[in-house]
Amino acid sequence: MSSRNMKLEDAKARAQVAFEKSEQRKRDASLVWQTIEDEALQLRQKTERLKALRLAKEAIEAEAKAKLPEPSEAKPVRRRRTKDN
Fold first, then answer.
1. How far apart are CA 48 and CA 52, in angstroms?
2. Which of 41, 65, 62 is nearest to 49 (CA)?
3. What is the pLDDT confidence band of residue 22, given thresholds at 50, 70 and 90?
4. What is the mean pLDDT of the chain?
5. What does the alpha-carbon distance between residue 55 and residue 61 come to, in Å, rounded to a whole number?
6. Which of 3, 31, 79, 84 is most buried (most C-beta within 10 Å)?
7. Rounded Cα gap, residues 22 and 20, in angstroms
8. Inter-CA distances, 35 with 28, 30, 38, 41, 42, Å
9. DSSP line for 21-77
């Protein structure tokens, strides 16, 4: 085999190795990106659940507050002073 053919085969082999590394990096990046997207989705879902719980709690508190009787406009009763006070 001539040295020219050997150089050509080496170049092809190096190109193949570079291509395989590039493809592996693409697969790795795709997995990382999918993980990031999954975590973001989970965070959005958690935020939605917490917001729903907060709104439900506020609605219950507002309903309970509405059921309370209105405070009387009568003057407060003053206590008499005693020797102990």
1. 6
2. 41
3. very high
4. 89
5. 10
6. 31
7. 5
8. 11, 9, 5, 10, 11
9. HHHHHHHHHHHHHHHHHHHHHHHHHHHHHHHHHHHHHHHHHHHHHHHSPPPP-SPPP
26: tokens are 């693409």
- pLDDT category at 69 given cuts 50, 70, 90 is confident
- The residue assigned the tokens 């002073």 is 81
pTM to 2 decimals? 0.55
Q: What is the pLDDT of residues 40-55, one digit of tens each?
A: 999 999 999 999 999 9
Distance CA 58, CA 68 (A): 16
Confidence tier at 80 by pLDDT (50, 70, 90): confident
**Which tokens belong to 21?**
């590394």
